[in-house]
Design brief:
By secondary structure, the protein is an all-alpha fold. Helices cover 80% and strands 0% of the residues.
């Protein structure tokens, strides 16, 4: 009789501990994805300051953003496997500490090369954080309602990271060097690592998982070659040997990756996942749609910071508007994920993004106020929240529970690939067009032979952005209207491209994912 009351007490304590672990794990996962997203968005508000401080070329400025996203894209699958094998909690801790080291390198950078190196190291940490943060959340939320709440929380944290980044960088750089913005994020990385270590629960799913080095090497080299060719094309020449060889190697290596994965006993990516129509469609829509979203955001950052030379804090405000939408629609995201299928959310979100890109394109480049931009900014934020929440749900909810780690890593890969291609392709299109416009326009700009030679030399050495931002005395005033119009036309062409991408993603989502209620969508078995 004495021991009988102890059983409910023990059960209560066990339930409390389990609840505490679920909460701690959710907080750790949300902190981790928030940190990773801060790093991804951080350069947006300070691209202009970085360019003027380090005198970067257009290609180098693109690499400052893409150096972070390349490792996040090419290593997401391998880190997904490592998390499944050895524990997602460990991966979150090591990823946050690696990101912290990268921010220390960036915070002490005095050359474009060192800043790009620091960004690459921080991106390596983010490559671990993105898939592991999603995997720990999904592993601890198995019921449909809990899964919907967990995914909505993860999505909100993702958006909050993108909201914090421009506010942090803009406010810091308004009063200090851009390097302090990277130092501040390094502190956040340390806090994330400590919180995860003390409060998160460990989870893993090692069944059928093993490191696949041939697959990792081929996919990493393929994506790196692709991005090198796209980014360096405008400056090195699209027909130059390095660019041509890089693009050709990307295709060959991608085909080799597919062949290796189809024959591997323990592939890093099960190609059978793509036999699930909803998963395959969400992957395709993710690449195209995230290219459209981040390509448009990069376009906006160049418009504000580089073309218009707005202050960092003023350039940050539009990004605060975009990323401030998702926290306000969090209850709506929860209800939509639980009560409707992802198809309607994806179609609505991508259409909102496409409309926003076309609307932004119609705003004159000499318009510096916030009010004319408010409509496209709100649509961008609404579309982003809907799309990210629905893409994650479409990918993870359509595969068996034991494959959620691989599915989340695959989602991270295609999302990061699309986001990486955004600045690269938009920059390539815009800079190629701007260079042609400036080259043909210099002869009619009323320049002396010496001034023409100086402008041509700067254009050849650093590209259109370097020429627009260069301090060349009276020559700068003479060519400013030409360079501003050329860059505006080039980046407007980029916005047209991103809008088309978002429309394509909406069509893919509507046709292949559809508008089924989630109760009628079940996880399909994976055939071996």
């Amino acid at each position: 009789m004495v021991s009988s009351p102890a059983q409910p007490l023990s059960t209560t304590h066990a339930g409390t501990d389990a609840s505490r672990h679920r909460t701690g794990t959710l907080v750790a996962g949300c902190l981790a994805v928030c940190l990773a997203q801060i790093g991804l968005v951080l350069p947006a508000a300070i691209n202009g300051v970085v360019q003027r401080s380090l005198q970067t070329s257009g290609a180098e400025l693109t690499w400052v953003s893409d150096a972070f996203m390349v490792p996040a894209a090419v290593l997401a699958l391998t880190f997904g496997v490592l998390g499944d094998l050895y524990g997602r909690k460990k991966l979150l801790v090591y990823g946050a500490l690696t990101a912290m080291a990268g921010y220390v390198v960036s915070a002490t950078a005095h050359t474009p090369g060192q800043l790009i190196t620091g960004q690459a190291l921080s991106g390596l940490g983010a490559a671990a954080l993105f898939p592991a943060s999603l995997a720990v959340v999904t592993a601890r939320t198995t019921s449909p309602a809990a899964r919907a709440r967990g995914l909505a929380s993860w999505t909100t944290a993702l958006s909050m990271g993108a909201f914090i980044a421009p506010l942090l960088s803009g406010a810091v750089v308004e009063h200090a060097s851009f390097r302090w913005a990277f130092a501040a994020v390094g502190v956040i990385a340390f806090v994330t690592a400590a919180t995860t270590w003390f409060f998160a629960a460990e989870s893993r799913a090692p069944e059928g998982r093993a490191l696949d080095w041939p697959g990792q090497i081929t996919v990493a080299l393929s994506l790196l070659c692709l991005l090198y060719g796209i980014i360096q094309g405008p400056s090195d020449g699209w027909g130059s040997a390095p660019v041509s060889l890089a693009l050709a190697a990307a295709v060959v290596l991608l085909l080799a990756f597919v062949r290796l994965e189809s024959r591997s006993a323990t592939p890093m990516l099960r190609l059978e996942l793509f036999r699930v129509p909803a998963f395959a469609a969400s992957a395709a829509a993710t690449v195209v749609g995230m290219f459209g979203f981040l390509g448009g955001a990069y376009d906006l950052s160049i418009r504000l910071g580089v073309i218009q030379h707005q202050s960092p804090l003023k350039a940050a405000v539009p990004f605060l508007v975009i990323q401030g939408i998702t926290p306000f629609i969090w209850p709506l995201l929860v209800r939509l994920l639980h009560r409707t299928g992802p198809g309607s959310m994806l179609v609505t979100g991508f259409l909102a993004l496409a409309t926003a890109q076309l609307w932004l394109r119609a705003v004159p480049v000499d318009e510096h106020g916030l009010l004319p931009l408010l409509g496209p900014l709100v649509l961008n934020g609404l579309g982003f929240g809907l799309v990210v929440a629905a893409l994650t749900a479409a990918a993870v909810n359509t595969v068996p529970q034991k494959y959620t780690g691989m599915a989340s890593a695959s989602t991270s890969l295609v999302r990061d690939l699309g986001q990486t291609l955004g600045p690269a392709i938009v920059g390539a299109v815009a800079l190629s067009m701007a260079a042609d416009r400036i080259t043909s326009g210099l002869s009619g700009a009323g320049l002396t032979a010496a001034e023409h030679g100086t402008a041509t030399a700067v254009l050849a050495g650093g590209g259109p952005i370097a020429l627009h931002s260069a301090q060349l005395g009276p020559l700068s005033a003479k060519i400013a209207p030409l360079t501003e119009r050329a860059l505006s036309d080039g980046y407007n062409a980029g916005l047209l491209l991103t809008a088309i991408a978002c429309l394509t993603a909406a069509a893919v989502s509507g046709v292949f994912i559809g508008f089924k209620h989630p109760a009628n969508q079940t996880s399909e078995p994976i055939e071996h």
